[in-house]
Amino acid sequence: MNGKFVSVEDDAGKVTRYARHANGGGLVAPGAVVAESARIGAMTYVEHGARIGAGCRIGHGSWIDRDAELGDRTVVGDGVRIGRATVIGNRAHIGSHSRIGSGVLIEHGVHLHADSTVPDGGQVLAGPRAAEHAGAKNRPHRRIKGRMAA
User: Fold this and answer.
1) How far is CA 92 from CA 6, 25, 73, 122, in A?
2) CA 114, CA 144: separation in Å to the nearest integer?
3) Mean pLDDT, 10 residues at a time, over the chain (150 residues)?
4) Which of 47, 64, 136, 138 is the most exposed place for a label (fewest CB within 10 A)?
5) What is the distance between the alpha carbons of residues 138 and 93, in angstroms, rounded to a whole number?
């Protein structure tokens, strides 16, 4: 096995050949776009169509699903799952062992503590609007249910 590539077979028998990211050794699927300045931790998977911005840091053992987008300088802890087509803004922080569903919007600068959960289709808003939608003042890290109207 070549150290720059790892082949993984899924439950349906499909084999994907992941490339190791030069900065951190994480596994990047074909079709994913990861900035050179990003750090992708060991045993982290970045799936097809995902986009990881400049200066991002993703911990060990995390999973970035298909078509997810992480803005510049976003930090993701260890063991985090980010669902399909989720969008996370610039300079956000997602604590270790958090679960972010599919189709989620997390605005720029939001800080989620470790073990946070955001359900499919949820939104986590920054600033004063977060208190309005989450039902708590200045606590955007709380669990937020449902999709907010745009």
Assistant:
1) 29, 22, 7, 16
2) 15
3) 77 90 95 97 96 98 98 98 98 97 96 96 79 39 43
4) 138
5) 15
